[in-house]
Write a structure and sequence with these properties.
Length: 139
Amino acid sequence: MKTKGSVRSIKVAGILAILFGIFGLFTGFAAAGTFIPYRQGEPWSESAEVMTAVAAVGAVASLIAVVSGWGLRRTKGWAWGATVGVAVACVALNVVMAAFMGLSYLYFAAIVAVAYGIVVVLLLLGRASYRARTGTAPA
């Protein structure tokens, strides 16, 4: 049974996924540019290659977040799972970055976890309505 509130939660989750994805794109590209390997004198110079790769993967995951948010807004069948997968990937990538950047980076990872946690909660609230809207039409 779909209710207006559950459909609205999916739409809001889509908007948030798009916004977080755009923010993640900028952050990921900026981080990848910051951690370019072989920068001399920086505390991360020994793990710069890995951090650059992680930041670039984060930017790609954020691009997928934008696309999946667009899919949620248009109730595409693949978008729900893609958005949950992107949420998990973005949080995991930030935890990996915390391993290289130090424990102070966990604050940023926590912010990302809370942000995508809100998206996942909204998706769970609207799951029944989402299944109803993406199902096949009766013959």
